[in-house]
Amino acid sequence: MTLAVSGGDLQRLRRLNALAVVSALRTAGPLPLTRLAGHTELARATIKEVVRDLVAMGWVAEMDPSTGGGKGRPARRYRFRAENGRVLGLDIGAHKVLAAVGDLDGEVLHVSRESITPKHSRRERLAAVDRAVDACLAATGTAPADVWITTAGSTGYVDNEGNVVVSRAIHDWSGVPLAEHLTGRVAGEVLVDNDSRLAALAECRRGSARDARNIVYLHIGRRAGAAIILDGVPLRGSTGAAGEIGLHPLFHLADSSDVLTSGNSGQAVFDAARRGDAAALNAVLRYVKVLALATAAMALTVDPQVIVIGGGFSRSADVLMPPLRAELETMCLRTPELRASTLGDECVAIGAVCLGVEHLNQRFFNPENGPVAPLR
Amino acid sequence: MTLAVSGGDLQRLRRLNALAVVSALRTAGPLPLTRLAGHTELARATIKEVVRDLVAMGWVAEMDPSTGGGKGRPARRYRFRAENGRVLGLDIGAHKVLAAVGDLDGEVLHVSRESITPKHSRRERLAAVDRAVDACLAATGTAPADVWITTAGSTGYVDNEGNVVVSRAIHDWSGVPLAEHLTGRVAGEVLVDNDSRLAALAECRRGSARDARNIVYLHIGRRAGAAIILDGVPLRGSTGAAGEIGLHPLFHLADSSDVLTSGNSGQAVFDAARRGDAAALNAVLRYVKVLALATAAMALTVDPQVIVIGGGFSRSADVLMPPLRAELETMCLRTPELRASTLGDECVAIGAVCLGVEHLNQRFFNPENGPVAPLR
């Protein structure tokens, strides 16, 4: 066998091998060297060398042998050091601000919450964001320098530079340079995205659509919004406006809940419909018709496998989903499966942590330059 | 430097190096060894070995030095052997059947055409397909065994198994097992896709949207259709139904040309509108309104960079596009750029060849097993 391997080739090969080991430890959990061979298809000698390098770089740790349990001398096991960095995820909504801190594997360690109203000023909302961040960092013992990335979800249309260009849901929020506000408060990069898009990602990674690669996510509540995941990736579109079907003049999705509530709370109408109240049932059917037309337009455009219903009204999925399914069946070639969100109102914050983790993965764990040593 | 390189690693490295050389020759054209270094970032010694292997496998040929021109002894140049295989692309429409033969780089060598009508039976249409294929193979001196892949574009909704499930445009066409009919007529794999999707791909690779990664393609003529390209890849959706916005009950896109023509030919109406005829201008505006509502629904869903207008009516883009742009601007957050198709009525057949080539690239030129030696 000739070994015409240049120095550049060898470096690249080492990167690929190291990434294979890191990936195996992150997906399969702590493993001994022997089991790493099966997960990576690398030779035992190569694995030993790669693990030694990864330990030196700080990406991998040898576990305390006493944790192994069982009889005899346990094989040394190695784990990915997800605690190397912290990931901050924010949900900045009309009525609440959430801050979540997770580790590099996206495990959420704590969520802090601040209440707010749509009428609060921009300054007050940003102050609530800062308070939620401070509280969450304190609760998790996270120094600002330990945060590797911050992802914020906001209602409204967020451009590729992290500005909230248009927000109909929040007074005084259109035009806020959110990325700019967040940059420098904690260390690391700042991403800003539409809240429904982050909720959709959360449902795909941790929620009711974990088995699906293509989904349409419909947020329904006092306000409505939508987002799309294709081939496992949130669809932003060319300018960040993908999923803004609510702007279409035939759908009136944004104000669709007026059809339902007429001044009552959605919950009250759903409860009455559940009891068989005819007026409430009619209101639900009118509302479902509006939702179905907008949802069908998205479904006929991207042909998703699953439609996930999230937002406050998704708690009444038992009332909403049967008529919604029936309406969609009259319009779609093949009607996607309808499911209700399982992540509740932390959905956006969880999605923000997920997006941050995936962004870090591309930066620190890619074949061009990864794995890169931790910042400290 | 330690060389802890296993046999498997080395094979993988060789594949990656060979793919880098093939890719450089396919994108930059014939090159001498010295220039391959700049295109691949491989060491000269490695390149020499890789090229020798690729010549032995039949993927690369040394060019006749006499073609070099210029003074002095020219450096030997190497080229990718795109002539190793032939790619067949079909467009099976309501009024015509086209067969195109291309090489492995997607260069179209010949197009054969058969006229047909929507009223012809399934058997007659399939016979026209066979005649077009035979004529195109004969014209290019292609033996059936030289065809590496066949891609057919059909009107209607095509499922993932290559059946035309629903066709409203062609009598007696719903339910035709098109992949099954084509399999075995010539060698190689058979792909079947919606015709608008292939036209969209052609516009992205060879037509008016070569600079764009995200497009919506709108086919307008006697019938209307749509397709989407995201991140350079045709969007099929979970079941092949992406782009079927024409089925939405609020848009009536499929029969939209009735609004325009009322029994006249579209061409006559556009010509009259161009002359300033008030009734014709009104008809065009009514038609544009229908188009704009359906197009906006797709644009608000996926946020494309460019909307390409194809199909017979795109020849009157000068009349259609200004009012269409104005309508879209009232509905979109950021209106995508509108462009007319530049590929004419061979668009679907060209797109079919493009898709076939890209499928072969994944099969023969991927890091897992490629480059694989030619079939013979």
TrEMBL record, chains A, B:
Transmembrane ranges?
Answer: none
Which of UniProt's keywords are assigned here?
Kinase, Transferase
Instruction: Identify the Gene3D superfamilies for this entry.
Output: 3.30.420.40, Winged helix-like DNA-binding domain superfamily/Winged helix DNA-binding domain (1.10.10.10)
Which Gene Ontology molecular function entries are recorded, alphabetically?
Answer: DNA binding; kinase activity
Which residue range or ranges hold the HTH iclR-type domain? 17-61
Pfam family example for this protein? ROK
Q: Which GO terms describe its biological process?
A: regulation of DNA-templated transcription
Per its UniProt record, what PANTHER family does this chain match?
BIFUNCTIONAL UDP-N-ACETYLGLUCOSAMINE 2-EPIMERASE_N-ACETYLMANNOSAMINE KINASE, ROK (REPRESSOR, ORF, KINASE) FAMILY
- According to its UniProt record, which protein family does this protein belong to? Belongs to the ROK (NagC/XylR) family.
Q: Protein name, please?
A: Putative NBD/HSP70 family sugar kinase
Q: Which organism is it from?
A: Nonomuraea endophytica
